[in-house]
Amino acid sequence: MLVLLLAREPVDGYLTLAHTATIHRKKTAVCSVTDLAALRLLPVILCLLLLAAHFFRAENMLVVMAVLLVAGLLFVRRPWSARVVQVVLVLGAIEWLLTLSELVVRRMEMGIPYSRMVMILGSVAVLTAMSALVFRSEPLRQRYGIGKAADPESP
Fold this sequence. Notes:
mainly alpha, 7 helices, about 0% strand, elongated
């Protein structure tokens, strides 16, 4: 029985525990880099969807479609697509700050408390701006080819 558990090859057509563990390690090693890159894109996707919802509430469908198209650029593995997403996220953070200032002025005029709203929208603005920085991580730099030196022999 001990020989059966330690064998690396299937014995009599049955996979042993050691053999299944080896297969599992090989499968997870292949998927880990792409899973990590996809996981790092979650804040970007969340911020873009939140920005689209913001413009949807303002009934600005043209901007909603533009933001959703930018979210689709996450599937294009080129450096320019990552840069476009970063620019849109920074512009989105500015939009959140402009919205925040407008709402604070309205609430101040009406005498309504606004400190909680400042905390929430300020956090959303910071999260949106910070999510532009995820493209500096190594898995995403590899995914989008950011920072690669141009090959002088390529046409």
